[in-house]
Write a structure and sequence with these properties.
With 822 residues, the chain is an alpha/beta fold. The strands form six sheets. Strands 1, 4, 7, 8, 11, 12, 13, 14, 18 and 19 form a ten-stranded mixed β-sheet that branches. The chain has a six-stranded parallel β-sheet with strand order 22-21-20-23-24-25, with helices on both faces. α22 packs across α31 (761-780). The site of ligand 26W has 22 residues, from α6. Ligand 26W binds next to α6. It catalyses: [(1->4)-alpha-D-glucosyl](n) + phosphate = [(1->4)-alpha-D-glucosyl](n-1) + alpha-D-glucose 1-phosphate. Its cofactor is pyridoxal 5'-phosphate.
Length: 822
Amino acid sequence: PAAAEDFPFYLDKDAFKDSVLNHLHSTLGTIEEKANPQAWWKATCAAINERVFVGLSETHKAHSNIDTRAVHYLSLEFLMGRLTRNNLYNLGIFEPARDALAELGLDIEELCNEEPDMALGNGGLGRLAACFIDSLATLGYPAIGYGIHYEHGLFRQEFRDGQQIERPDSWRDYGNPWEICRPESIQKVPLFGYVETVFGNDGQLRKIWHPGEMVRGVPWDIPVVGYGGHTVNILRLWESRADDYFDWDVFNAGGYVDAQAEKSRAEAISKVLYPNDETPAGKQLRLTQQYFFCCCSLKDIVRRYKRRHDDFSQFAEQVVMQLNDTHPTIAIVELMRLLIDDEGLDWDNAWGICEKVFAYTNHTLLPEALEKWEVGLFENVLPRHLEIIYEINHRFLDDVVAKKWPGNDEIKRELSIIEEGSVRMVRMAYLCVVCCFKVNGVAQMHSELVKKDLFPKFYELWPERFTNVTNGITPRRWLKACNPELAQLYDDCVGIHWPTNLEMLKKVAEYADEKDFQQKFMAIKHKNKQKLATLIHDLMGIEVNPEAIFDIQIKRLHEYKRQHLNLLHILTLYRRILQDPNLDIQPRVFIFGAKAAPGYRLAKDIIFAINKVGEKINQDKRVAGKLKVVFMPNYRVTLAEKMIPAGDLSEQISTAGKEASGTGNMKFALNGALTIGTMDGANVEIREEVGDENIFIFGLTAEEVDLKLKNGYNSRDYYYNNPELKAVLDWLDSDYFTPNAPGQLSSIKHSLLDGGDPFLCLADYQSYIDAQQKVDETYRDKAKWAKMAIMNAACVGKFNSDRSIDDYVKEIWKLKQYPAVQ
Ligand code: 26W
C-alpha cells in the first residue's frame, strides 16, 4: 500500500468519499439517486483533479521561479489511453479511491470503463511519446509535450463479415475532465499568400510574408502526473479555430455563408488524425497540420522565453526541442523565420541558435515512410519557408559538402535537401540531419542502421551527431496499473520501490527456480488469462480455454510485421490436425489485435483472411478445441492493458532490419510472456538481457536479408521445395475458408509469389515453424516455462522509459531535476 510519506497528495478513503460526493453535488449538479455511471466517473475525476491542479500550479511556480532549461517534446501523436487509473496510482490513492467508491456501491473497474480512450496516435511512436512524458514528470524534469488536439483520434475498428470497417472516434463527445482550455495563450498561424522583398532602413534586403489566411490555435492542457505526484507537467494540444470568423463586415455584406465556409476550413486542420503509419499522406492538410502545431508551439516557447529575456543570447540554454520523427521538422524552418523576419536576427545568429536547440529521433528505416513534400505544395502553403529551406540547402551544399568533397557534384545531388526529378521534393529527414545537433535511433541495432544505411554520407560528415537511445515503457501503466496482482507479488518480494527502479526486479530472478514462487507467478498469469477469456467471450461470443497457450500478436497491421506469417503457422497446425486427428500438440489460442490503414489493401485482406480462417477453425469439431483464433476488434491502449498481462507467447516476428524497435515486445516480457521473434529492433537487446535460453529466436538476420535480396530472392523456390508450405498456401487460395467465394483470400498468396514476397515470409517460414515447435515442447514442461517466464519479467528492467529519459537527458537534453511538491 502507498505510504503517505511517499505521496504528498495521499488522502484516506473517507476523505476521498467526501470529495467525490461533494463534486457530485456541486460540480456535476446531481444527486446520488439520479447519477449515472458517467456522472460518478466525472465526480471521481473532479476529486482527483483537486490534487492534480495543486501539483500543476506548484510545478509551474517551481519551474518558472528558477527559470530552468526544459525539453519541448514535439509530436504529432500522443497515444495516452485512459488516465483515471494511472492518475490514481501516480498520486498513491488508488486503494483509498477504490474503497471509497465501493462504499458508495460503485465498482472502480466499471467506473474506469466510462472513460473513452485518448487515441491521438497511430501506434508505437505515439505511445512512446505518452510513456516519455510520464517518465519526465516522474523524474521531476521540466518538460512539455506539444501536439494537436484532434477532434477525432484514430478510427474505431469494427468487423463486418470479417472485413475491417472504420468508424469515427469521438473521445470528447461528453466532455473530458482532464483538459483545461487556456484561451489566454491563443496563437495566430499564418498560411498561404506571398512573399515581398523590400529594402529596410539599414539598406538590407528584408522579406515580408503576406499570408493569405490566418487561423487561431487554442491550447488545451492535459496535466501529466508523475509517479509520487511531486511533479505535474503538461501536455499542450492545439486546436484550430477560424480567426474572427464572425466577421461582421462579411456578415453584413451578405457573406455569412462564406464566413461559415472559412470557419470549417480552418477547423478542419485539427479535425482528424491521419490514420496512416509508415506511408506519408502527401496531402496539403497533413502539411498544414504539421505547420499549425509547430507554429503555435514555437510562438508559445518564444513568448515564455521573452517574459524573462530581452535578447536571444540565452535561448539555447533554456530551450531544447525533440522532434518525434520528421513530422515536426517544419519547426526548424519556422524558428528561422521567427528569428530573422520577426525578431530581426541575422542568418548566422539565427542558424547558430537552431543548430543548438533541435534534436531528431528517427523511428523507421522503411524508405516509403520517409517524408517528402512536393516543392509546389510548400510554394502554395508556406512560401516563405520554402525560401528559407532553399537558403539552408544552398549554404549546406556550398559550405559543408563542397569542402568535404570538392568538385563532386554527384554527392551534392545525393545529399541535397531538395530531391531533383520530374517532381521536385523536400526531403524532411535530410533537413533534420543538417540542422539537428543530435540524431538518434530507437534501439541499438536500429541506430547502427540509421548510420550505415539511411544517412551514411551524413555520418561521414558528422559522426558525433549520431547516437542511440533505446526505447522504453512506463512500468506504472504497463505493470503496476495493468497487472496489479503481479505488482503486489513484486511488492512482497523486493519492496514497493520497483515502479521507479525497475532494475530492482533482477532480485526476482533468484526465485525463478523455487516451486512455490513459480506457482504464485503462474497462478497470477492464469487469473489474467481467465479474465481475458471472459472478455473475449463477452465481446465476441468465442469460448477459449485458459489452460491453452495464449499466443498474442498485437500491433499495427503491416506486411513487414508479418501477421500473415503467423497465419501460415496457424494453417500449418490446422492442416496437421486434419491429417492426424490424434496429433499431440499443446492447445493454443491465437489472439490478434491490429488496425490497418484504411487505404492499405493487402493489410485489410490479411485481417479478413485471419478472420475467415478463424471462423472455420473455431467451429471445426475435428480440431477439438486444440486451436482457437481470435481477432479482437478495435485494438487500442485500453485493450492492450487487458491482453498483455494474459500473454504466454509474444509474437515479434518482423523481417529483420525493418522494425526500428518495437515496444510491445518490452511490455509482454515485463508481464512474463516469452518472446518468439527475429533478430530485429529491441528483440536483440531483450535477448541480451534475458539470455538466449529464455527466448525463441528464429529467421534470417538483417545482413542475411540484405544479401538474399541483393542476390535475387525467389520466393517460389521455397514454395516448390517445401511441400507443407505449398499445401498451406494453396489451401488459403482455395474456397475452403470462403465457401462460394473462391479467390477471396488470393491476394496473400499472390503477394508472396507473384509479388516477390518483399518481406521474406517464405524464406523464414520453416525456421518459424521449427521455433513454434520448440515453444510447444517447452510449454509441456510447466516448471521450465514458469522459470523462463519469471526470468523474462525479472530481467527486462532496462526497458523502462525512465532509463530512456535518463539517456536522453545525459546525451541530448542536459536537464536538471526539479521535483516541485515535497
Ligand atoms: C507519415 C506517416 C507516418 C506516421 C507514423 C510514418 C511513420 C510513422 C511512425 C514512424 C510509425 C511508428 O509508430 N513507428 C514505430 O515507432 C516505435 C517507437 O519508436 C518503434 O518502436 C517501432 O518499431 C516503429 O515502427
